[in-house]
Write a structure and sequence with these properties.
The complex is a heterodimer of chains A (about 110) and B (about 120).
Chain A: E1 4-7, E2 10-14, E3 19-25, E4 32-37, E5 43-49, E6 55-58, E7 61-66, E8 71-76, E9 85-92, E10 100-102, E11 106-111
Chain B: E1 4-7, E2 10-13, E3 19-25, E4 31-38, E5 42-51, E6 54-57, E7 65-70, E8 73-78, E9 87-94, E10 105-106, E11 110-114
Parallel strand pairs in B: 2-11
Antiparallel strand pairs in B: 1-3, 3-8, 4-5, 4-9, 5-6, 7-8, 9-10, 9-11
The chains are: A mainly beta (about 110), B mainly beta (about 120).
Chain lengths: ~110, ~120
């Protein structure tokens, strides 16, 4: 059974600081998704990582995937308040199918 | 207009009532999904459908049923609602395409409260 674990689950940061969110998964997968959810809102796709060693960057967020270690990281550089949200990683339960198993999410709060 | 819409957006009902949540999409995607979100538990898959004739159970299908009326429409029913089905429900769509990412696109959500 595929399990997806994120840590930390809660993260309070100061503006300007750097931090990393980790996503571990328990079975082989060659792809991983990151989503963002603002309070009371829907989920928005951030990154799709499709192969070992994949790295994607947008603004102050950078995501990477190590399929051998079954680990993805979401690195935040010089955090700003607008990045406050909950971040989810998700992995396909079956490579041939689209049904995703989500982590429990990391609630990020960036304070001035 | 939004690509994935859900109705109703909020619903309060009583234990034992039958409830239907509806999802429509204009993205032309074959794949559709229903999830529920509970605080601290992330999203859990209830049912998914890869085309009109294909329906599959997800992690937590007990107490729920679905209907795929057309490529664009996927409905979730609670035959006899119970309080622990109080949650935020999301519909999503995706299209694997050729070399596609199969990214899922989510609707705005339906907040359901069962008293």
């Amino acid at each position: 059974e595929l399990k997806v674990e994120q840590n930390p689950l809660f993260l309070s940061m100061q503006e300007g600081k750097n931090y990393t969110i980790y996503c571990n998964y328990s079975t082989t997968s060659d792809r991983l998704y990151w989503y963002r959810q603002d309070p009371g809102k829907s989920l928005e796709s951030l990154f799709v990582l499709l192969s070992n060693g994949a790295v994607k960057q947008e603004g102050r967020l950078m995501a990477s995937l190590d399929t051998k270690a079954r680990l993805s990281t979401l690195h935040i550089t010089a955090a700003v308040h607008d990045l406050s949200a909950t971040y989810f990683c998700a992995v396909p339960q079956d490579p041939s199918q689209g049904n995703l198993i989500f982590g429990k999410g990391t609630k990020l709060s960036v304070k001035p | 207009d939004a690509d994935v819409t859900q109705t109703p957006r909020n619903r309060i009902t009583k234990t034992g009532k039958r409830i239907m949540l509806e999802c429509s999409q204009t993205k032309g995607h074959d794949r559709m999904y229903w999830y529920r979100q509970d605080p601290g538990l992330g999203l859990r898959l209830i049912y998914y459908s890869f085309d009109v004739k294909d329906i599959n159970k997800g992690e937590i299908s007990d107490g729920y049923s679905v209907s795929r009326q057309a490529q664009a429409k996927f409905s979730l029913s609670l035959e006899s609602a119970i309080p622990n089905q109080t949650a935020l429900y999301f519909c999503a769509t995706s299209d694997p395409g050729t070399g596609g990412t199969d990214t899922q696109y989510f609707g705005p959500g339906t907040r359901l409260t069962v008293l």
